[in-house]
Amino acid sequence: MPRYELALILKQMQRPETAAVLRRTVETLMERGALVRDLENLGERQLPYRMTKHNQRHSRGTYFLVDFYAAPSMLAGLLDHLHRDVDVVRPTVLKKDAQSSIWTSLSFLEDVSPLI
Amino acid sequence: KTDNIPLLGLYFKFSDIVQLQFIAKSQTASAEVLVNMENPYREPQKGCVLCDVTVDFKNIQLLSQFISPHTGRIYGRHITGLCGRKQKEVSKAIKKAQSMGFMSVTHKNPQFMKDPNVCGIKHLD
């Protein structure tokens, strides 16, 4: 299955609320048959420009990076779901390149099917 | 016309005669003199600044070194000095980071203003 990367920018919230948003995002991913591999926190910082989403103007946000394996057919539905989430400012899904991967030793996972 | 030297009724150029003499000498010399080897004075190929560096959209500090601090415009190849492949990678990564909300479009992040100047450009600051 191809590898994808979800760059998630969340609204500036308290820690338990951020945890709740992350939890439901990962649960959504798993419900749609994705295998979540890695979740990185890039920190809370000032956004490079003010973003408007769900009738709110955001100037600060928390950046997260979710690595996952998924079928290409579920990406459209996933992005639609993320855009509708009120706490998410900007979701972006990218394909992960093999060259830029840090975990080159774990490439044997490429041909592992997800656990249902 | 002054170059032509009459010899045996034929006109040769001076350079031809020098070459004929050289060929005659080398054939008589031993085989040790002429050795097939690669150029000993050859210098290692110089790569561009990012030859061994992976370019990522997350690494905005690296990408910010290739944009203007005043306008945020991406510098061209004649300024950055990067090879074709790396220039394209940097350009694509900057556009990706800008659209994903990682990097600003109109200016350079003030935190990165003090970074060393990689591009060959001098600002009149």
Automatic annotation (TrEMBL), chain A:
Gene3D superfamilies, per the entry: 3.30.70.60
GO MF annotation terms: small ribosomal subunit rRNA binding; structural constituent of ribosome
SUPFAM superfamilies to which the protein is assigned, alphabetical: Ribosomal protein S6 (SSF54995)
Pfam families hit by this protein: Ribosomal_S6
A single Gene Ontology CC term: mitochondrial small ribosomal subunit
GO terms, biological process: translation
Family: Belongs to the bacterial ribosomal protein bS6 family.
PANTHER family: MITOCHONDRIAL 28S RIBOSOMAL PROTEIN S6 (PTHR21011), SMALL RIBOSOMAL SUBUNIT PROTEIN BS6M (PTHR21011:SF1)
UniProt protein name: Small ribosomal subunit protein bS6m
Originating species: Oreochromis niloticus
UniProtKB/TrEMBL annotation, chain B:
Keyword Transmembrane helix: no
NCBIfam families attached to this UniProt entry: S18
Compartments it resides in: Mitochondrion
GO BP terms, alphabetized: mitochondrial translation
Chief location bin: mitochondrion
Lineage: Eukaryota, Metazoa, Chordata, Craniata, Vertebrata
Chain segments annotated as coiled-coil in the UniProt record: none
Molecular-function GO terms, alphabetical: small ribosomal subunit rRNA binding; structural constituent of ribosome
The name this protein goes by in its record: Small ribosomal subunit protein bS18m
Gene Ontology cellular-component annotations: mitochondrial inner membrane; mitochondrial small ribosomal subunit
Record carries keyword Chaperone: no
Keywords of this entry: Mitochondrion, Ribonucleoprotein, Ribosomal protein, Transit peptide
One Pfam entry name: Ribosomal_S18
Protein family membership: Belongs to the bacterial ribosomal protein bS18 family.
